């Protein structure tokens, strides 16, 4: 079994990747590391170098100017016996990376959000519709890749309590984009959305919500849980998977321009 680690580091406000986050990863010895929100800057570059020295091949998603947000994916070299192909697709937002290791597809992303405080209900609903559209783009993309898939992501889905139905929030943004709806979206494409059965991954005031999830296809996941560290306002999501042992050819994406492909020596 190989363990994975996903964490939203809350890169908003140009927050740096701290040495505490690196220490958590180093002590955990994770095979796959996914950071679903990091701010580009000096702290990010230092973190990437630290991870390389610790034996991880890593890649940052596309992003704009310094301080803008992206995602990071690291794979521990001694956990894999083949090269990794990194694919960055322009899905209309920068918080996305797709890595192929052998037959395994690792897709890491975050659904970006806008500040909806003080907006009218019509504007809020429009923003939630944008989130839904971005999620549909990712799911459509993931459904068309070859081989097993694990996706680690921050969905930024609407708050939804156990036992509630869509009619409880009629006319609200969460009736457009929320956890039950996302689960249906994945299942319609033969993927399983998995969320730890207890705990929560984000807290604001009295609100506790599960925003961080994984989705898989043709993979078994064990020991899925939220684990809190004092390094972010999100919990990490952790679990274990069995890695497939057959290889896909490295030219499986020949249509991609060279700047969107990178072979990492793993």
Automatic annotation (TrEMBL):
This is Uncharacterized protein. It comes from the Bacteria. InterPro entries: Endo/exonu/phosph_ase_sf.
């Amino acid at each position: 079994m190989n363990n994975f680690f996903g964490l939203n580091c809350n890169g908003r406000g140009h927050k740096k990747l701290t040495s505490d986050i690196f220490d958590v990863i180093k002590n955990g010895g994770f095979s796959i590391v996914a950071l679903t929100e990091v701010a580009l800057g000096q702290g990010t570059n230092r973190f990437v170098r630290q991870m390389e020295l610790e034996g991880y091949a890593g890649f940052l998603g596309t992003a704009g100017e310094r301080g803008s947000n992206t995602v990071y994916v690291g794979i521990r070299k001694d956990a894999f016996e083949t090269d990794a192909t990194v694919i960055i697709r322009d899905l209309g937002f920068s918080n996305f990376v797709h890595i192929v290791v052998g037959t395994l597809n690792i897709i890491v992303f975050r659904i970006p959000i806008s500040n909806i405080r003080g907006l009218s209900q019509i504007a809020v609903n429009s923003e939630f519709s944008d989130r839904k559209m971005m999620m549909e783009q990712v799911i459509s993309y993931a459904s068309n890749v070859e081989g097993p898939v694990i996706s680690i992501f921050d969905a930024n889905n609407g708050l939804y309590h156990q036992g509630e139905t869509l009619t409880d929030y009629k006319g609200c943004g969460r009736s457009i984009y929320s956890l039950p709806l996302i689960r249906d979206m994945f299942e319609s494409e033969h993927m399983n959305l998995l969320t730890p059965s207890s705990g929560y991954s984000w807290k604001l005031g009295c609100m506790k919500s599960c925003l961080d999830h994984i989705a898989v296809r043709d993979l078994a996941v064990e020991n899925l849980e939220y684990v809190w560290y004092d390094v972010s306002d999100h919990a990490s999501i952790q679990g274990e998977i069995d890695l497939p042992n057959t290889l896909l050819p490295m030219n499986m994406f020949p249509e991609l321009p060279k700047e969107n492909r990178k072979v990492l020596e793993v």
